[in-house]
What does this fold into?
Amino acid sequence: MSFWLPKQYGAWAMLVAPVVTGAIIGGFGWGSVAVGCAWVVAYLAYMAVRGAMTGRRPRGFVTPSITYSILTACLVAGLLSWRPALLWWAIPLAVILGISLVLIATGHEHSAVNDAGLIGASTLMCAVTATAHLLSRGLTWHAFWPAVAWPTAWIATAVLAAYFWGTIPYVKTMIRERDKPGWYAGSVGYHVALIVPAFLVNRWVGGFALLVAARAVLVPKLFPRAKPKQIGVAEVVLTVLLVLLLTLTVH
It folds into this structure.
């Protein structure tokens, strides 16, 4: 079963939260649901290909890779026939995922650059999902412009990106870079720097920024031997809280 479904709890939170937030902000419709489904299947295809490239049992990932890739192609084709202007979103997403695969192939699977790129792609899906219903039929920039011009979608996307990018140094201070002062200082500094911009969004997002800054300061010191599963579950809880705050307070 591990060949078909990734087990990373935090990764699933990062994957699902943007599309759920975007769907709620934009108003649920079959289009936003279809975009969300396509993204989840595309992620599963990416992880299967990644497993085939770097896993201990690469042959086990071959069938999932082919299956999920075919499903992704079918879903994307259906979405493009519905709203061809979605192709404009596909360009940055394809570039980011392509760069990620190059980094994996060259042995930089766990680099901060790769993690940051994947988070950027995932959080961009908030804007994609939220604005799908605003696209008109056609492939021109005029058909795509209404999606770019809606500030609410971009504010939600930016908040999600800021939070998830902060998980890179934070998680590294808990696992791979544990007990390294430089990473801890960078994590704390990043989270503290977000507090003022977060309050500019609204006081609820600002309060959330204070909470995650306190987490970055205290958790590595109080729980230095926390297990990856515990860290992932905590991230899921915080992600759910952030989604609720965004969908209830950002308009």
In short: Residues 9-249 form one domain. The chain has a mean pLDDT of 91.
